[in-house]
Prior knowledge:
By secondary structure, the chain is of the alpha/beta class. The protein contains 21 helices and 32 strands. The strands form ten sheets. A seven-stranded mixed beta sheet has the order 5-4-17-16-18-19-20, with helices on both faces. A five-stranded parallel beta sheet has the order 7-6-8-11-12, sandwiched between helices. A hairpin with a 7-residue loop joins strand 14 (266-272) and strand 15. The protein is globular and about 70 Å long. Mean pLDDT is 93; it is low at 1-5.
Amino acid sequence: MTGPGDAFVWRPDPETVEHANVTRLMRAYGIDTLAELTARSVADPVWFWDAVVRDLDLEFSTPYERVVDMSGGPEWATWFLGGRTNLARQCVDRWAERTPEAPAVIWEAEDGEVRTATYAGLRRLTDAVATALARLGVGSGDRVAIFMPMAIETVAAVMACAKLGAVFVPIFSGFGPDAVAARIADAGCGIVVTANGSLRRGAPVPMKPISDLAVESSGSVRHVLVWTRLPDLATSMTPGRDLRWEDEVDPGGTPLEAAALDSEHPLFIGYTSGTTGRPKGAVHVHGGFLVKITEEVAYQVDLHRGERLHWVTDLGWIMGPWEIVGALALGATVVLTEGSPIHPNAGRLWAQVERHRITTLGVSPTLVRAMIPAGTDEVRAHDRSSLRILASTGEPWNPDAYLWLHREVGGGRLPIVNLSGGTEVGACFLSPHPVVPLKVDSLGGPALGMDVDVVDATGASVGPGEVGELVCRQPWPSMTRGIWGDPERYLDSYWRRFPGVWMHGDWASRDEDGAWFLHGRSDDTLSVAGKRLGPAEVESALAAHPAVMESAAVGVPHPIKGEAIWCVVVLRPDVDASDALAAELRQTVRARLGSSFTPSRVVFTRALPKTRSAKIVRRAVRAAVTGGDAGDLSSLEDPVAVDEIRRAAAGE
């Protein structure tokens, strides 16, 4: 695919270009190159997003009158005005009518069980769940928390909410009770849909007890609908509140028509990490999320009807809704799997590729780094010829891991479509398209319709090779419609640093050839194996322990996870530091937030570096524990605190 001295690691062959969805779009409008299409999509977004709707056959039961309205400013742009649609109609009902026996969802359990839902079957199950929710009083605009592992039932719950006009709240299935409760309470969920448990690394993982603790502390939940995923797992049920899926959901019931909703009707609240305070609920809507996600899955990872997409993710991360909506809106198949992709061995994922003939596979850099030590025997033992596209997101790559995926898994023939966006973006700012060459670790360039830039501290664009803040200079259809219940926090988080410009919180750069790269977070957000969490949640969990006076949670480099959580803790005056106490504090965070967010280390210190207004300066804490440059410390009340943390972290 590449020649000696070639700066690019992959180049598309003529067949790939000819077959690509984005090529069809370009030819329909007489556009010769992706660069020309990208430029036009930014210069004329009204033309572009209307062209997307038409090219991808996205239906509006009532046609929209205007593509976008920015009269309230770019922060509050609305899309497809006057139009009515329903995401469940687009993703389920129309394919149940057109291709009823085509597979919509394939699910593989960790114990090897495989189930397939055709589009007709998925519609029957979706309608049954929607009917059950309606009987429980769920109506348009009501919030429903979905705390489930990836499964066919999970997809049906998502689509049932959409069909009714209810707002689903996806919650990471690995969270502990505090994290689950915070999201239920913030969204004001009246209903929780959960499973009694799931399998992970060969063992049952109870979910209902976590749900119970979360529900009891949230104060808003009327009913809990429980799918019995593990029949042998003892499950306590609270009379009058808890209902069994098997008793309430009848797939043989009456079909239900999808509500014709305004394009701006809320679809779901996706929670993303907040560096201070509670998690931020990003509000996504039917029209904008449908159009942008379908566009990305069609043009970026080039999925076609009849093909199969599998992304190793969870519903609680944005890639869960992304893969479900994108695949089903295109009439393709989404493949979901339970448990660890490397259990019982490193060959499980590649066996799934072979068994289910997966065409598009999404993985994180963390997962790839975890697989490398197992060698390539398990990779080579399985037929991977069905794969056309490899994809990734969530964190920056390192060259060794990127090249291992490209060479050992893809055999040098497949592009790695490395995406970058976020929950609040609802999509991607940066992405390659499989019709242009790729460089190692690169994110290609701007995603279609995304007016992105790299700027310095004053908001001025920087040149090639310079690292700066990643920003977007105009709105896009899947942009969050604010932070749930807190419009000022939304403006403070994304728009007020550079007025009228979205600042995302990522360091980025581009080179002389126009290839873009990411360099990590520019804010305090923790990113552990691609899972983002605000330091405030970790610090709140620690504050519940009677020994802790205050703390700071920071991310430090980790060879597998990208970042690991370290906690720097100030103890109460009558408490002595010890290894046993450090282990106890690690377990406290694990119990409240889930095992994924267990701190790697707890460091005890006398004081935290703070400004004169008492704000903890986490960049100084991070620099102290990593040995990095803390930068300007002139604003600190007690600069000596940084040196004390540095010595404590070094064991001095």
